[in-house]
Amino acid sequence: MTLEDYLRQTALPKNEARLLAQAATGYTRAQLLTCDREPLPPDTAAALVALEQRRLNGEPVAYILGEREFYGRPFAVSPATLIPRPETEHLVEAALTHLPPDGRAWDIGTGSGIIAVTLACERPDAHITATDISPAALAVAEQNAAAHRARIRFACGSWFDALPADLQTSFHLIVSNPPYIEKNDPHLQQGDLRFEPPTALTDFSDGLSCIRILAQGAPARLADGGRLMVEHGYDQGAAAREIFAAADLNNIETLPDLAGHERVTMGQKAV
Questions:
Q1: Is residue 36 over pLDDT 90?
Q2: What is the per-residue DSSP string for 66-79?
Q3: Taking the CA of residue 195 as centre, how many other CA atoms within 13 Å lie in the half-sphere pointing to its CB?
Q4: Which one-letter DSSP state was computed for residue 232?
Q5: 202: which DSSP letter?
Q6: Is 155 left (phi over 0), alpha (psi -120 to 50) or beta?
Q7: What average pLDDT does the segment 175-185 reach?
Q8: Is 224 helix (H, G, I), strand (E, B) or coil?
Q9: Distant-in-sequence, close-in-space partners of 13: CB < 8 Å, separation ≥ 6
C-alpha cells in the first residue's frame, strides 16, 4: 500500500487522514506529497490502519495524536483535558488586551494550560497562576508550560479553594473556560464530546452554576479595576451578564466569536 492508495480509499476526511499519515510515517507535509507513491513498510501501514480505525471508532484526532494547535503553538492533550478550540482564543485576546504591565492573572480550571501558557508566552512580564481540580489535567498543563518555557505557578484544587488565602488577592485578571454545557444537552453524546472529560464540559446542572461561583468569588480576589473574564455557550451571554451584574461587577460586556455568537463575558471590579 502506498500513501496515494490509502488516501484514495480511506473513509476519513482527507485532512484527518493526512494528519494520521504524518503520525504513522513521521513524514512532513511536503513528504506526504513527494513520497505518496512509495510503498509503505508493512509495520508503518499497519500502524496507519490502526490509527484510522481509532478515528473511525470516534476517538478525537487530538487524542490520537496527543496534541492540538492553539494560538500558533502545539499543546499536548490527553483524555484528562478538553481539546483546545478556536473560540477560546477570543478569551486569550481579551486577556492580553486588559493585562497591565507586570500584571497578575489567575486561570481557574486551566485544563491543558492553553490559556495560562499562552498568556505567559505572549507576556513574559506577567505573573500567571493556573489551577485545576484534576491532578491529571495539571500534569498536562505543567508539561505544556515546560515545553514552551512558560513561567507559571500551578496549584491543585477546586475553584477559589485551590490557593491559600494569602495568595488570593489583587489579581488584575481572573480568567476561566468553565464547564458550561447543560446536563441534558444532546451534544454531550455526540462527536468528540463523547470522549472528553464530562466534568470539564458540564456542571451537571443548568450550565451556569460554575459561572455563578466565579462571579461571586472574583471581586474579593481582584485588584481595584481588575476584571473577570469567562468563556460560555453561544446562547448564555445574557445570563452571564445578569450573573456578573448581581455580583456587583461593572463595565460588563460580551464579546462575539468569529461566527458572531456571544462567547466571552467580562466585568470589572469597581475602582
A1: no
A2: TEEEETTEEEE--T
A3: 16
A4: -
A5: B
A6: beta
A7: 96
A8: strand
A9: none
> Could you tell me which CATH number the domain at 79-268 has?
3.40.50.150
Residue position matching grid coordinates 494550560: 113
Residue 31 pLDDT exceeds 90:
no
**What pLDDT, on the 0 to 100 scale, is given for residue 237?**
97
pTM over 0.90: yes
Contacts with 186 (C-beta within 8 Å, 6 or more apart), sequence order: none
Write out 188-209 in H/E/C secondary structure: HHCHHHHCCCHHHHECCCCCCH
The torsion angles phi and psi of 109, rounded to 5 degrees, stand at: 75, 50
Task: Enter the C-alpha cell of residue 172.
Answer: 488584575
* Spans of all domains in the chain: 3-57, 79-268
Q: Indicate left, alpha or beta for 160 from its phi (over 0: left) and psi (-120 to 50: alpha).
A: alpha
Between the alpha carbon of residue 204 and those of residues 20, 185, 198, 233, 234, the distances in Å are 34, 10, 9, 15, 18
Q: What tens digit of pLDDT does each residue of 75-100 get?
A: 999 999 999 999 999 999 999 999 99
- Return the SS3 of 204: coil
Per DSSP, what are the bridge partners of residue 221?
Answer: none
**How many residues can be counted in the chain?**
271
| Residue corresponding to grid cell 495568595 | 167
| Residue (of 179, 149, 167) closest to 106 by Cα position | 167
Task: Report residue 169's pLDDT band, with 50, 70 and 90 as the boundaries.
Answer: confident
